Inverse folding.
């Protein structure tokens, strides 16, 4: 039995990924797309400049784009995926939740709010319990659930695997693809034969979101994990796939084999979009993997890929990678939506 | 009064940079070039596929390429710059030193040998004193001096500035240009729309060479600096210029202004190829600098460029950059040669 | 009923594409792989550095690599696909044909030989009749069939569509991907932020092969088409997909609609790997297509893509594109093999 | 004795090139910069995001940005260089000319107007005579002079060399750098691992401007050259330097040596920014030149570079290259300004 879903901000780069991921989805039926007022009223095919490498589905091309407001969205839609600019999202998401819609949002606003679940289904599904707290405090019939930033979600599953050894501190450097900034976010003059060691707000997101995702929820309150996390974020000339170098320290001092085993042991789950397993781990015979172009599409773009596990004086260093617009954005929201449906929140 | 110099392995990428840097040099006159036996006997213009973006000097094009052996090199040449493959260098450099030549080498062999000076003129010129030890032990009339690896030299001047605060540990991630692997080292299929998180032997070089460069020499013996250094090295699609993210911890906890001041205060020195100052430091108003394409040619490619100084829970993080084939290779050897001449070793 | 096939030169870039295309093929079963003597005797998984973006099939990984000689190939193999270097191919292909094997070869040797069919199944399937001539002249039990060069096959189907208007002359400029030169054929230093207006022998291939493909076969002899063809070939920084600008003149002066209709009307055929239709044509509403990254995988990489049809003073200009290692190499040989099987030559 | 000059639209990519080229200019002193109303009143250093790879001159950084109107420009300024968007230029340039200013403009508006000189100093300096016609017709005290589009100026000098052989027709394909579209004109998502076979309006500019530049002026009227010119324009992933493949036909059939000699024989002129000679010609020993990254800075970016001259059935084919933002934009306007000064129009 399928759930009718909508996409808020459906014409953008992430919005187009949502449409691609929802095509032929076994549990969700795309019933509504919204965009800015200029696009409202047009057919989606006319409103969107389609740039994904698979053709636009005919039935989606014919959908009439609606305004992003409670009035404009049909009552029989139960779940909304949001890829709105964070400023716009901050304005409209609360109203939609109050109107009774469940919103699975990729937008960065409110991710750190105390009563908003920030979830990765394979890592902290129990945090969905925060929805009760949220509804009590805000008097909403609906709910607001967030997925983390693309650079955060690439790293956190590997940190979760290390947590059994007593995770204490993390230094991470990112090599991020241009698609993370949206279709027009990085100009070619800025990045060809170059790299940019600054992405506004990105480091703060990685440092705070990681501790929330790894934190514990006691049924009433969520406490952040107490590990120190420091990030340096860089943009490089790759199209898709964020590669990250992690330096991690734990109380127990696992050797590389133990670290690889712990990462490989994390289950992928059994939701429609779940990867199996959660993390593909390259061994010492492949020291130069993962690589963005070679590994970003593993598990249809939903798998985390790790490798290059080596020891340091006080811990371990390793590399991890994920597809930033699939696992790191649209796919993460869809997977959260699947979890919400599976656990009966919708 | 000028010194007659030669270049060992003059036809390769670094060899061509040597020729470019020695053109119109105020203190050195290029008198001899050597290469593999196939090239020996040809004119340099015929033997080398010239790929530097300035024309090949006419007088160099006419030089006859010699074999790389003591017999083949004129006696009136006093200083030899070496950019030989490390395997070849390990075989021929000792014989040349024994024959009385002073060799300023960019090759990676013997950099960590206890009696071989590994020097950056602005950082540890006193280590040249090891030449006495070397001559006593090896009975050489000549001498062998090394410059560090390109990824090491990009970072060490900034670490030297931090040492006044009591440097304890360093985590560094590198974003390295393809020219670091030589003209044919990285194929286009390997790196376009991609990044490779592994460069063979590079991390070990950064971790060991840094501690030797920052170590102390008591006139008889050199002791390594006791800071822990852990590196993750990556190749990205840039042509020239290595960008590095550094996480550093010190006993004193300097704030970003103190760190920037310490870096900016390091003198460039007064050798012919010295930059002024050693490090160009970008302030908080330019958080996205340094960038490889924008900053690699500062100080004619001899200056270190730093920026993005921010604090972390236990220390500071910042970014640094240098031109890997100028400051990181040929230019480093030339600067060492200039120091040898200035201090009367030649 | 399936045909047992082998791949000559299976470890290279094109060889790996052959393996990818033959996985789960409905008519062909991969029974044998050959490579250089150093690889012979190893398992394919150990001998090949797998670089295709789909995993290596398990059964192929376990195949033992054989030498490229008649003795080494099992008798029950009926069809051999060749991606040998042309020098090696020129030496071994005749011996294999003499030994009775039918060889569908992508190697450039002998493409213009008077008794060797150079075929594109959708364009000149009748040229296979040359096999009779070839067998008479050479006394072979087997046969040698060639497919054209990647830059030729991208253009010829569009020229075939124009031939009904009386094709007289062609000027073509190519923007070719680096994969056309093999995995290590173009270094990153050569092509990043650059383009190279020369590919050795490429222009001659386009100019001669086009006229043979469009030529007529009277059952005994093949006469070349008399159109003038002049090509300028360039390498640019793209991974896969050759884009070509064509200026064509015909006796009749068709308008753009007629040209688009003629291109779109060419049937794709009904072989297992046939695209449908042969050419995807973009209309005036998409003036910026085809583009390599957006269009190279149409029809699983087997479709020709055309667009930008405009008139000039004496004719028309348009752009065409094809995937150079699929449609332009391995896929072309496989399609020729499928034609040989369908027409009973095997 | 120096001329005081101004730059209209000084904050953009071409505007910054103007500033770079005018620094230390022997005949021109930069006295005024204008930009959009938002920038007016700020110091240039604050108004412009400086992106050129040489530091911004201190005295320019301190200039106060003015509005782009006759009232705002000092009377003692005699020459204005324009890099305004063509729409804005069409509105303001006539008023400035009426107010007595001589405007050397890179903007595309009015290039084909019958009474507006479109000039390349080395090719058609006599076309400046159109200024008299222009002043008669429009009653201006000032004057409006244009330089051609960057893709046109790359090719026309080579066509001028061929004209002695009776130029009849030209087919040209361009491989154009992203900087030609301005700093933000081409997104990285659009061009990495890709090429775009369409640049709006570019082909029409090449086809019409070429015939005007090669046309003849009888003192009263300008007649276009009657050669047919057809262009196909492509954007590729290079930063600077347009590479073009030319197929040309002439009445006389010169061999490659004659063509190379004719190109090499064109004088560079003796203006401050003149290259010497106008065209650097590569011979058959360098078939793979010119290349954008290797050759764009010849003659400080003001030289045209040609090579790869080969014969075709009805003519010749060759490649040419120029730096699109120096020789193809700001440098072209500056050179026109130098010609105006040398010939006493200022």
């Amino acid at each position: 039995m399928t759930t009718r879903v909508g996409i808020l901000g459906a014409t953008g780069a992430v919005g187009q990924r949502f449409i691609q991921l929802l095509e032929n989805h076994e549990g969700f039926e795309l019933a509504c797309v919204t965009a800015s007022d200029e696009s409202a009223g047009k057919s989606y095919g006319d409103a969107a400049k389609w740039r994904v490498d698979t053709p636009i589905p005919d039935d989606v091309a014919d959908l009439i784009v609606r305004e992003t407001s409670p009035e404009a969205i049909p009552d029989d839609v139960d779940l909304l995926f949001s890829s709105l600019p964070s400023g716009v999202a901050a304005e409209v998401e609360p109203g939609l939740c109050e109107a009774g819609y469940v919103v699975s949002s990729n937008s960065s606003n409110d991710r750190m709010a105390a009563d908003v679940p920030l979830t990765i289904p394979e890592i902290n599904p129990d945090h969905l319990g925060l929805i009760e707290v949220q509804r009590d405090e805000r008097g909403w019939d609906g709910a607001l659930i967030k997925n983390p930033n693309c650079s955060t979600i690439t790293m956190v599953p590997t940190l979760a695997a290390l947590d059994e050894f007593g995770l204490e501190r993390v230094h991470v450097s990112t090599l991020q693809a241009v698609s993370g900034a949206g279709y027009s976010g990085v100009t070619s003059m800025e990045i060809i034969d170059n790299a940019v060691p600054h992405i506004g707000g990105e480091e703060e997101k990685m440092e705070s979101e990681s501790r929330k995702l790894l934190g514990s929820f006691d049924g009433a309150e969520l406490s952040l994990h107490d590990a120190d996390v420091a990030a340096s974020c860089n943009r490089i000339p790759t199209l898709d796939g964020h590669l990250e170098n992690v330096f991690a320290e734990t109380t127990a001092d696992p050797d590389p084999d133990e670290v690889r085993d712990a990462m490989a042991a994390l289950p992928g789950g059994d939701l429609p979009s779940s990867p199996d397993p959660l993390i593909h781990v390259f061994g010492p015979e492949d020291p130069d993997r993962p690589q963005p172009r070679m590994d970003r599409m593993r598990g249809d773009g939903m798998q985390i890929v790790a490798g290059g596990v080596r020891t340091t004086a006080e811990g371990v260093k390793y590399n991890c990678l994920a597809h930033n617009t699939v696992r790191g954005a649209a796919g993460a929201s869809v997977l959260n939506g699947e979890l919400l449906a599976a656990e009966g929140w919708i």
